[in-house]
Design a protein that fits this description.
This protein is α+β, with helices and mostly antiparallel strands and 390 residues long. It is 39% helix and 18% strand. A six-stranded antiparallel sheet has the order 3-4-5-6-8-7, with helices on both faces. Strand 5 (65-71) and strand 6 form a beta hairpin. The longest helix is centred in the middle third of the chain and has 24 residues, at 232-255.
Length: 390
Amino acid sequence: MVLSVFWSPTGERTELEPMPETWETWLARSSQPLEDERQPLLRHVEEALSLKIIRMETLADDGNLVVAVEYENGLEDVVRSPRPNARDGEDVTVTLQRFWREVNLLKWLKVNTTLPVPSIRTIIEPHSPELYPYVVMEKMSGSVLMNVAGRLPYISKEKLMHSHADLFLQLFRLDVPQRIGTLNIEDGVLDVIPWQAIRPESSAPQVYDTLEDYIHGLIELKTLSDDIGEDEAARLRGETVLSRLAANLASICGRLDRPSLRRCVLVHDDLNQTNILADERGHITGVIDWEHQSVRPAVLAAKYPGCIRYDGVSDPQYVSGDVWWTVGPDDAGRLREVYSQIVKERDYDYWEALVEGETLRQAVEWLTSSSYDEGCALLEQWMETIFPQE
């Protein structure tokens, strides 16, 4: 097994077992029975494509069911089927709406961009109330970035910055509706609905027309959230911190008033290092899992690659638990400058949004973080470094 390279919060380099990219394998030639949920999947996919599946690997089953299948002719696909989030008591209707949003978005991206997103081979809708639809799509090459990034030589990490720039700039240049929320595509028509967050309780109650309204909405949601404390004293402290943050952000928004900074842009909201596939040369080969996305102003859309982030909520001093970085702090600092120069040369509007929106983006990350922060103590600590009180 090839070990992956990571860095600890103290900057120490270590080698660890890579994240498993498959969790279970089934072979047609074996006597191993298929679980109930996978048996109808196999049957429906084989019938729809007139191909026999000889191998099935489970990629995920904690939320959606996602499996990789290999056919007897050697071709491979990924099959994805939605599941309601039982833990959050999610309604089936919401689950299916999210599924179809992702399917329609992938089709639209394939036509309107050269982004490395999977092509959809077919969609299967079983005639049974107990079964959810299946989308059969191209299996992208490469490994999850989490397993690859740390062992790349520096020159390949620079290529990774170019690949990220290709991805972000294509999204930045797409023509999307100029309102803040989640993109919804039906019959080729683009619309914006209220932002659908990864955590349902963090979703927005409405579509926003301005940056100021959006920030105000995030402050309100955070104020009502259980994440800031359970007892009255903690919640009062949290509300005081959030009130102070709101005042500072209002001032920042007032300075970010140019149309190029306010133009709305499509953003992948779950672009962590398991949803980016890359090869050993630092090229991004696939961007997957588009079920969570948003349309937001350029100052919030332009960003540095997550693998080189050591700031805001990604600053080691604010994290807890078993957290690792895939790029060391020294290389991350150098690559940050490399990335900034790349986008400055290729799209000056993006670069301006990247630089001028940095504080606002970090604040939004704090407001949308799912981590428990009693009394907003960590947020306040960050604010002291950005908005020191006299």
